[in-house]
Amino acid sequence: MPTAALPKISAGQPFPLSRTSGLPCRSTRGTSQGDLYVLTRFLLATALLCTPTALFAQAAATATRPLSLQVGAGFSNADSGYRYIPGRVNGTTIYADLDLARHLGVEGEFRYLKDGRTGAYEKTYEIGPRYSLHYNRFSPYAKGLYGRGVFNFTPDSVPSEFVVQANLAYNLLAVGGGVDYRLLSHVNLRGEYEYQHWFGFPNFPDFIDVPKGLHPSIITVGGAYHF
């Protein structure tokens, strides 16, 4: 049976839209290598930014609290914010914190959440300022992050009348807070909550009449090594 030729897509040209849903229909094949490349660049950039200042802080003896760096990972449980994923999803968070002063610092974060029933997943790359306080072993903090979120649609994660399989990225803002607990001199435990807003995320089937956006909320527990 003859099939219609697929349209060619040049760089910078929008993805073709489904005639039914208006959603992009792009195959996700071959994205794993691209995802690994982006994550590698993200972590490398964070390391390059943090390492020189952390080394300088260790070498400089001052009367004030020196710069400090911690790198950690955690288990995350989230409400994905997506109406066609029932229940909560689990995943992994990797983070790095560079404290520039006693209370002010910068955080970089990568998170991967996947729904095992539909195969849909969310990935985020975020960076932004962090404000912390210090009470003996406890360091509560608040943060505001900006970044990029990737959502992978699958056939099982959309209504049956839609035929969509795409891996699409959206800008996002996030706010959150938590507490670090100093278990050992170089080991911190963490518990935190984060709320995200993804801009332009489609809400279908009535995506035209409903304001676009995705609002995941995530709880993370983990630990970090403090250099």
Structure description:
This protein is mainly β and 227 residues long. The protein has a single domain (31-57, 66-226), classed as Porin (Beta Barrel). It is built from one helix and eight strands, in the order H-E-E-E-E-E-E-E-E. The protein has an eight-stranded antiparallel β-barrel. A hairpin with a 2-residue loop joins strand 6 (167-184) and strand 7 (187-198). The radius of gyration is 20 Å and the shape is elongated. The model is unreliable at 1-31 and 53-63 (pLDDT under 50).
CATH class type: Mainly Beta
Q: What's the helix-strand series?
A: HEEEEEEEE
Helix segment count? 1
Largest sheet: 8 strands, antiparallel, barrel
Please tell me the CATH architecture by its name.
Beta Barrel
CATH topology: Porin
Distance between the termini: 64 Å
Q: Share of helix among residues?
A: 10-25%
**Uncertain spans, ≥5 residues at pLDDT below 50?**
1-31, 53-63
Overall residue-averaged pLDDT value: 78
Using DSSP, what is the number of strands?
A: 8
> Which class of secondary structure composition applies to the elements?
mainly beta
Structural features:
Porin; mainly beta; 13% helix; eight-stranded antiparallel β-barrel; 1 helix
Task: State the gist of this model.
13% of the residues lie in helices and 44% in strands.
